[in-house]
Specification:
This protein has three helices and no strands. By secondary structure, it is mainly alpha-helical. It is elongated.
Length: 118
């Protein structure tokens, strides 16, 4: 049984999600540049998402190249490295978002305690 169509579909999925995520991350960053106070915190989330999406797109292109016309173990290894780097940037943005949310709720809780104490 040939798995070639599945490999090609996986490459297209990588490219699709990379382009989709990159488009929305870039669109969000452009909107945030109009609001400097929001850009200061949100850039730490959306810039890694944009970079991760770029890596996913490159990984998809490498995957398609390897399974279409340039079969090489080096390209396969490079594809895997690029996908891992993309996932790393996505994880970094999730961790940054989590950190910002924890700090926000901590600050909110402290503010509510002060208001209730007065």
């Amino acid at each position: 049984m040939s798995y070639q169509p599945l490999h090609l579909a996986a490459g297209v999925v990588y490219i699709f999600f990379g382009l989709l995520g990159g488009f929305y991350a870039l669109k969000t960053l452009i909107i945030l540049y109009k609001s400097p106070e929001m850009l200061k915190t949100q850039r730490k989330i959306w810039l890694p998402i944009l970079i991760g999406a770029l890596f996913f797109t490159i990984g998809g292109i490498l995957h398609l190249a390897e399974h279409s016309f340039y079969q090489s173990p080096e390209v396969d290894l490079l594809h895997e490295i690029v996908i891992i780097m993309g996932l790393s940037f996505f994880i970094a943005s999730i961790l940054q978002y989590s950190h910002l949310q924890i700090n926000y709720y901590k600050l909110k809780r402290e503010g509510l305690k002060r208001v209730q104490a007065e």
